[in-house]
Write a structure and sequence with these properties.
heterodimer; A: Rossmann fold; Rossmann fold; 4 domains; 17% strand; B: alpha/beta; 44% helix; globular
Chain lengths: 647, 206
């Protein structure tokens, strides 16, 4: 990853969208940056960590997004330019603070950079975060490419200081996780010293409850939005291209503009074209003028019909007769594109062609399904979660009851609920049917958001669920992010649930950021380790067990003991993420091998779900290039046919 | 009016280096483009959810472009670092008359290992692409990568092969510079050698 603080101004360079956002913040002289890892947003903070080596900038991965926003807001209130970065789901965690902060305003520019994930490549939902900017009543900028991401990130700090409000930058996967040419601009140093004025321009300025009270502060916030509306009409991010003789118009917001520009260039139809860079508040005067010159307007946007709904309301209010097409609003039908799924050049082309009344000329080639087989997402070769899920399956099969419920959440271990894509999962109405997982990929029964499993398990217990044991799994980073209050709740009410903490010492899913159990920061500097075990005991859970996920017998025994314990019990399975171990120790190619003479072809090793273990004919084989010598398959082979060959 | 543009899709399995290969192409494209304001470079990637083992692909586009993704049937070149993934991408993206280069080394998905489906013979995969009107070349990139020093640089062998074949409109020097820029120094010599071996192999098929 490049040091974005060292890029030469004026020289084009390829940057990931997230790196471009980081560069823009460095150009604006950002002083404090915080975040919690979440794909596709993580590289913003990673890039700022790297930049902190050469720029005067303090960076931290906070324990969760709410804490991250509060840390950035605190810095802003004493006058530091601050940024906080998170994915869409992360803003939900920070929402309480996010909607309250604008009432009191901020001082140093505060940029809230949020990356949505239309298409749910890496997320539980396709949430369109622009609604949350509207709910919090703060401006939202939406870049069309990496260069504009840099420019918006830079300008956002000035805008935030002018408005005294946080500013949201809404990215999406195809901005954050795509790269484009970016031309860096010079780095500025923020003026002004740190300080705190309790009554700056308002009594009890940063105390929402203080006189004259929250309603007055809400009124002040609306006054600031009027300033934002004037700014939006003049900012460089909205642009109209008039087509001579056209009576139709296309409004394209954010990345939709990148798709629409190519489509309109190719179709060569006369269409007025509005590039929209600020979806909230809208540049209303400009859009009114645009719509007055169009009979029909097509709105292209990534996510929900957020701009479409606002534009329709605006035109109705102003009595402008132009019709608006586009994504339907949630709950309404009749749109030109579905409100779910991600845009791509073909969908945008089809939407524009339908809008223009043209035939779509290039149908998709069918995928020959018998030949092009699916590829399930898997855990890595030698992943400690393979061991954890094996032990959990074994323990639950023995003492879990008829229909135990395994509640999962978000992290690498969420793949325990992905299922196998090639399988045809049964659909059944029978609530007492027993299902045995065939692989680690169909272990998890519920999965929603970080920490949700621990709460759901308690609800199942409180309702008096009769058919089996109630289990929740969570990772080490998730444990500190979202599980602590839930576990305190379980201890308080004596919920008979078993929580398995899969402590692999890293926030691995999002690219191996440090967690509180890592002992290192993002740049490899030593940090304190927070041990979950004394924390769990202090919360009031009496039954706390520890085991190594790579010791299948010990892990199974610990989980069984926890399952059989009446009341809350926690098992901490400690074992470092195998990828991180291998990267550090460089043990060389795998030495674990199957002796074909002894292999009975029972496929028990294959059901471990490790991508390094496969079948060749009737015998198991291990791919030495992929194998990380974790020893799990050696333990599961009933014939003793798998051994680690000593060098 | 379709302005000049080059579109490449690189597909493989997580951990094979599709992202690195795509960024090498994009860096080389930026170097060639110079400061022409109408010229842009875009790399669209899908990565992160599956650190290892899932399908991943990168779209690399340069010239008169703004979208980060290749429209269907537009890629003049599809590079498959794994045959099944190369063909999965080619069915959607390769243009009629385009070229598909496939690394012969198969990485069967866990679905096949567990016995739910069978991995198709490479000949059948080849047939799928040919019936879409594209040319297919299958390369044993792993052999050349091992010759260069490590099997891990098969991705760079495939870039070299495509350049040698003449289906990548980027000069050798620009790609070598991009490799120097992107590859960590301790692996640089091996990757430069891998690129060269791939390029010479590609020239044989010209």
């Amino acid at each position: 990853m490049p040091d974005v603080a060292l890029l030469e101004p004026g020289k084009k360079v390829l940057l990931l969208g997230n790196e471009a956002i980081a560069r823009g913040a460095v150009e604006a002289g950002v002083q404090v940056a915080t975040g919690y890892p979440g794909t596709p947003a993580s590289e913003i903070i990673e890039a700022l960590y790297v930049a902190s080596r050469s720029a005067a900038l303090r960076v931290q991965w906070s324990v969760n997004e709410k804490v991250a926003l509060e840390v950035a807001a605190g810095a802003s209130i004493v006058g530091a330019r601050s940024l906080t970065a998170m994915k869409s789901a992360g803003l939900n965690v920070a929402m309480d603070t996010f909607v309250t902060l604008p009432y009191g305003g901020v001082r140093g520019g505060l940029l809230v950079a949020v990356a949505d994930d239309p298409g749910a490549h890496y997320s539980s939902t396709e949430q369109d975060t622009r609604w949350l900017a509207l709910a919090a009543e703060v401006p939202c900028l939406e870049p069309c490419d990496q260069e504009e991401a840099r420019a918006m990130s830079r300008v956002a700090f000035d805008l935030s200081e002018e408005l005294e409000l946080p500013v949201m930058l809404r990215s999406v996967t195809r901005i954050s996780h795509c790269s484009g040419d970016v031309t860096p601009q010079p780095i500025s140093t923020p003026a002004g010293r740190l300080g705190f004025n309790k009554h700056y321009r308002l009594p009890f300025r940063y105390n929402v409850y203080g006189a004259p009270g929250a309603v007055h502060k809400h009124r002040w916030l609306h006054g600031r939005l009027e300033v934002a509306r004037r700014w939006v009409e003049e900012c460089p991010f909205n642009e109209v291209r008039w087509a001579p003789g056209a009576s139709l118009g296309v409004v394209a917001a954010g990345v939709a503009f990148a798709y629409a520009r190519e489509v309109l260039e190719e179709l060569e139809e006369p269409v007025h074209f509005f590039k929209l860079g600020v979806p909230y508040p809208l540049p209303e005067r400009q859009l009114e003028e645009f719509a007055r010159r169009c009979q029909r307007v097509l709105v292209l946007e990534e996510g929900d019909g957020f701009v479409r709904v606002q534009l329709e309301a605006l035109l109705a209010r102003q009595g402008i007769s132009c019709s608006v097409e586009g994504k339907p609003a949630p709950g309404c039908g009749g749109g030109i594109a579905e409100p779910w799924g991600e845009l791509d050049p073909d969908l945008v082309r089809a939407a524009v062609e339908r809008f223009l009344g043209r035939e779509c000329d290039e149908p998709e080639r069918p995928l020959p399904s018998g030949v092009i087989i699916p590829r399930s997402s898997t855990l890595c070769a030698g992943c400690s979660h393979l061991g954890a899920y094996w032990s959990l399956r074994e323990a639950v099969a023995k003492v879990g009851g008829t229909v135990p419920i395994i509640n999962g959440d978000i992290g690498c271990y969420e793949q325990g609920g992905y299922g196998l894509f090639a399988g045809d999962p049964p659909v059944s109405e029978d609530i007492s049917a027993r299902h045995r997982p065939k692989s680690p990929y169909d272990v998890l029964d519920t999965m929603h958001v970080m920490g949700s499993g621990v709460g759901l398990a308690q609800g199942q217990w409180l309702a008096g669920y009769p058919d089996g044991k109630l289990v929740a799994v969570c990772g080490d980073s998730t444990f500190f992010h979202a599980v602590l209050p839930s576990l305190a709740n379980a201890a308080l009410y004596g919920a008979d649930v078993t929580v398995v903490v899969l402590d692999n010492r890293w926030t691995a899913m999002t690219g191996h950021q440090p967690s509180p159990t890592t002992g290192r920061d993002q740049l490899g500097e030593r940090m304190p380790v927070v041990d979950p075990v004394p924390v769990i005991r202090a919360l009031g859970v009496d039954k706390v067990l520890e085991a190594d996920a790579y010791d299948l017998q010990a892990a199974e025994t610990a989980i069984r003991e926890a399952l059989e314990h009446p009341g809350p019990a926690v098992v901490v399975l400690r074992s470092e993420c195998r990828l991180q171990y291998v990267r550090r120790e460089r043990p060389g190619p795998g030495r674990t091998a199957v002796d074909p003479a002894e292999c009975t072809g029972c496929r028990r090793c294959v059901s471990l779900g490790c991508p390094a273990v496969g079948m060749q004919g009737r015998k198991a084989v291990i791919d030495s290039g992929a194998c990380n010598d974790c020893g799990l398959c050696v333990q599961v082979c009933p014939a003793g046919a798998i051994r680690e060959v000593k060098a | 009016m379709t302005k000049a543009r080059t579109e490449v899709v690189i597909a493989g399995v997580g951990g094979q280096g599709t992202v690195l290969a795509a960024r090498i192409l994009a860096d080389a494209a930026i170097a060639v483009a110079g400061e022409d304001p109408g010229w842009r470079v875009r790399v669209g990637e899908t990565f992160g959810a599956a650190m290892r083992g899932g399908s991943v692909s990168s779209h690399v586009r340069w010239g008169s472009v703004s979208s980060p993704l290749v429209p269907r049937r537009r890629a003049g070149l599809v590079i498959g670092l794994e045959p099944l993934e190369g063909v999965r991408a080619a069915v959607k993206y390769v243009s009629p008359g385009g070229t598909v280069v496939l690394h012969s080394r198969t990485l069967p998905p866990v679905d096949a290992a567990i016995g739910l489906v069978c991995y198709p013979p490479v000949a059948e995969l080849r047939q799928v692409v040919e019936s879409a009107g594209a040319r297919v070349l299958v390369v044993d990139a792993e052999k050349l990568a091992v010759e260069a020093g490590t099997r891990r640089c098969a991705n760079v062998v495939m870039l070299g092969f495509s350049q040698g074949l003449g289906v990548l409109p980027l000069p050798r020097e620009a790609l070598v510079l991009a490799i120097r820029r992107r590859v960590p120094s301790r692996y640089l010599d091996v990757n430069l050698e891998a690129f060269e071996l791939g390029r010479l192999e590609g020239e044989r098929y010209r």
